Amino acid sequence: MAISADKINEALKLLEDAAKENKDQFLSATTGRYENLKSAILDEKGLKERLALATQKAAEIAANIKDAALDKTREIAGAIDQNVRKNPWPYVAGVGVGALLLGFILGRRSAK
Asked: What CA–CA distance (Å, rounded) separates 93 from 99?
């Protein structure tokens, strides 16, 4: 069950009003209690540690993705290299056709 910010603000306002009216009674009633609530709200060290842990985990995931991509790239490059070495003429013809088309396109633009 999610608690809305309005309800939290309303509860804090009621606590503030009660604290103003009966400051001594409020302090004696809350001293040593509700430490979990206090630590959840004010625990900056824990927050910093959780953020550092999350950052470290994200860095590890990014490194794993980078390594996997590098391995896959090397695998594909090796397969292409083997295909070119076995039968280079289709690749030579493809490069020639590509160069011819590029020259034709660039030649038409400069002639205008």
From this structure: 10
